[in-house]
Predict the 3D structure of the following.
Amino acid sequence: MIPKPHNLDFCFLATASTRKEIWSYVRSRALTPLAQRFYVSNTNKNLCCLILGVDCPLPCPLFRVYRFFFPVAVIASFGVRVYVSIVAGGHLTNYIVTQSRPFRTGFLPNFLMNIGIVGLGLIGGSIALDLRSRGFDVFGVSSRQQTCDRAQARGVVSEASIHLSDMAAADLIFICTPLGAIESIVQKLIPHLSADTIVTDVGSVKTPIVQAVSDLWPNFVGGHPMAGTAESGIEAAVRDLFVGRPYVVTPTAETPAHSVEKVEEIARLLGAKVYRCGPEDHDRAVAWISHLPIMASATLVAACDREGDRDIVNLAQHLASSGFRDTSRVGGGNPELGVMVAKYNRVELLRSLSIYRDSLDELISDIETENWQALEHKLKLTQQARDNYNL
């Protein structure tokens, strides 16, 4: 049994308190604005009492708000033990956050973590919805105030704003912007982050992103949830989007192990199947099963539209059913995504397109020469091969 800390920094009672009353109490403690936000954001209907304590051989006012005045690693160097005690449902549970060893975000129970989401679209909004339903406080940033307002109205995030500085209280930040914006977003975030903040992304290309961002922020973990729909924007965000779907994490040899583990833990909480591989292997694999299909699907639609007889085009449009729907879906998605994957995964996409073109040429040759046996053999092989994919 962990003893109660004998030198309590504060006891923050929030039972049945309104948000206004909480703010009044916190301000009366003369805490820093960042600390005020931390305490308020971590107070909800499931958390009746939060006690942060310091068991310290030295006078403790210096460490009044341990996480925001000093890194816990500094406090630990003085032989300090920092406790987090939770009183919920009448039960007291104590956690030792650190005991003479460096602080890691991973030491905290999940419901004490603040999650930041930059980019409140389909993926960012869906991550936020799922994590909020699992007890996390989620803060969002969007470039448009209208998106922020709608995200709060839908309950997607706890709070939202257009200011990246509001990510300062986050322990783990998801960058859910288009590929071309990820590096610049991280550059703008850095002045607001503490050294232990974990940053991850959801981009569908990893090698150039991981290389660029890891140089800016060593505590970066490349990530790619393999899920989505043809829709986009905050209104497209849904719960359980990632359940049963792959979530790829792409660390390098220099990526902190505990940060990788935390991102993987969060991905599992989303219900995803977690895979770990290098950024280069990721890009080569997704060129086949994600980026090539975008281009193949787009060219299918474009080829249909090039039919010279517009009456036939009109008839085909009315007759289109499930087969055309399934094969054309990704080609009818966000054009910006298609351009970005071609730009950032150019080499691997060109390689897969070249091999795809060779396969098409073989099919054309079989049909032109009426080699039906060869064509049937190829179609039997693809029928068998398709069963090997995670569909």
